[in-house]
Structures are given as structure tokens and as C-alpha cells.
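$ run holo --ligand "protoporphyrin IX containing FE" --emit C-alpha cells
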Amino acid sequence: MFSLINLHRRAAAAVVIALALGSSAFAADKTLYDRLGGKPALEAVVGELWAITSKDKRINKYFANTKPEAFAGQLVDFLCEASGGPCKYKGQDMVAAHTGMHLKNKDFDALAQNVVKALDKFKVPAREKKEVMTMLGSLRSSIVNH
Ligand code: HEM
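-- output --
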């Protein structure tokens, strides 16, 4: 019965250690949303993204008629939900939101570069930065060439 008893002992020990450390010790248990710092962090990053993008001559023509507060609110809700946060995004899906803009890969890349700059300004760690960029990258085909 060596193995079963040992297995039970190990499992019990793991539970004790987990309780002693507290669940926050396990970064992998936390959503990307939590690890980024929740809604205040997303608001800060989106605010910076707007500051950079509205001055970016490569792509700011697309946002000529955009109301910054309303757009930022939608983007925060979208990112919050997509990163496992408690928000409910109520805007259009990504294809519908960008249809008619005829965005190209270079436009997407320009915005993605601005996202990296905004994440860097707030010193978002490499792991979270990679997860955000992977998540945004997965949306490329919904956003480009529509
Ligand atoms: C992964 C990248 C992107 C994400 C997650 C994203 C997300 C969003 C969201 C959530 C909205 C709001 C839709 C609504 O209110 O129903 C939106 C609208 C918009 N997006 Fe994007 N977008 C991305 C890429 C881009 C790019 C590359 C451009 C142009 C260079 C762009 C230009 C716009 C514009 C002009 C609007 C309309 C803003 C307005 O309400 O005036 N987006 N996007």
C-alpha cells in the first residue's frame, strides 16, 4: 500500500501548503485581468493608448470622429472581458466594429506597437504583456481586410 498512502500524504501536504501560502501565491490561478491590476490598470493603459494613437499619423485618421471617452469605455470593457474580468462588453463584435474601414495589416501592426508602448509605460511584466499581445493578435483576421 506504499503508493496509495504516499499519494494521500502528498495530497494532504499539498493542501496544507496551499492553504498556508494562500491562493494568491499561485499566479497561474489568477486571471490575466487580475494580474494586470484590474480595471484601474486597464483604464490607465487604454488612456495611454489613446494619447499615443490620437497623435500617430500612421493611423489617427481612422479615429477622426471618435469620442475618446465612449471609445475608451468600450475598449476597457472589451479587454476586461477578454482577459477574464467581471465586465460585460456590450459593443459590436470585432468584425462588425471594423467593417468598412478596410484596415490593412500595417494599420493593425501600428496599433499593436502602440499597445506595447502603453503596456511598457506601466511596466506590465513580460508574461502579461505576451498574453495581452497574443490575445490581440488572435483578433487580427476579424479586424483586417473588412
Ligand atoms: C486587436 C486590435 C483591436 C481591438 C481589440 C479593437 C477593439 C475595438 C472596440 C472594442 C471598438 C468599439 C466597438 C463598439 O463600440 O461597438 C472598436 C472600434 C473602432 N476601432 Fe478597433 N480594435 C482593434 C484594432 C483597430 C485598428 C488596428 C484600428 C485602426 C487602425 C481600429 C479602429 C477602430 C475605430 C476607428 C473604431 C470606431 C471608434 C468609434 O466609435 O468612433 N481598431 N475597436
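-- notes --
The two ends are 63 Å apart (CA to CA).
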